[in-house]
Amino acid sequence: MPVLTGFSRPPGRPILSVMAILKIARMGHPVLARRAEPVPDPTAPEIRALVADMVDTMIDAPGTGLAAPQVHVPLRVVVFLVRKERCTDLPGDGPVDLTVLINPELTPLGAETDKGWEGCLSVPGLTGNVPRHRRLRYAGYGLDGKRFEREAAGFHARVVQHECDHLDGILYPQRMADLGELGFVEEIRKREAL
Ligand code: NI
């Protein structure tokens, strides 16, 4: 049931409005394995409502990103943010405010990859050391219907790759070269700085 609350509203939304925490699909659900469909009109009210609920769900979880298929909606929409404490010291990595990315396109820049520990709200309790492109350019549409483009590195680039993989039915374990580096957060935390 939606609840009335003033907490965790994205900028520009009313202080008091209906908040909805959506159910998150877990690994094995078919919605996570299929390719999501492009959004015909990023400015449509139902997309705005979906994004608001995704943000509420992400903040409640809590998570750093969420893709629409994770809330059982097979559309090419992701939301994410990058907190300062997660950033690497790579140039181009840094905190990123809440970002809504619709119909994203990713272009790797350079051949370098880095491994880093990832978790996923659809794979609860687990973490894995996942190779990702170090740098990339991404583009997509915001809720205003305007196309924007950014370059990203490090953790910022990692989050974008992780979330956009969800739109192609890919979960992070499928990107791992060595499943020996997949484990429960509680165990891995004993030997790695997560
Ligand atoms: Ni995920």
Question: What's the gist of this structure?
Answer:
The protein is α+β, with helices and mostly antiparallel strands and 194 residues long.
- The helix tally amounts to 3
Instruction: State Rg.
Output: 16 Å
Instruction: Assign an overall shape.
Output: globular
Going across the major beta sheet, what is the strand order? 3-4-5-8-9
Strand content: 25-35%
- Write down the overall mean pLDDT: 92
Largest sheet: 5 strands, antiparallel
Please count the beta strands (DSSP E, at least 2 residues each).
10
Tell me about this structure:
The protein has 194 residues and is of the alpha+beta class. It is built from three helices and ten strands; from the N terminus they run ββαβββββββαβα. The protein has helices at residues 45-60, 154-166, 185-188; strands at residues 3-5, 17-19, 65-67, 77-82, 96-108, 113-118, 126-133, 135-141, 147-153, 182-184. The strands form three sheets. A five-stranded antiparallel sheet has the order 3-4-5-8-9, sandwiched between helices. A three-stranded antiparallel sheet has the order 6-7-10. The longest helix is centred in the first third of the chain and has 16 residues, at 45-60. It is globular and about 45 Å long. The termini are far apart.
Characteristic key phrases:
alpha+beta; 5-stranded antiparallel β-sheet; binds nickel (II) ion; 3-stranded antiparallel β-sheet; single chain; 194 residues; disordered N terminus
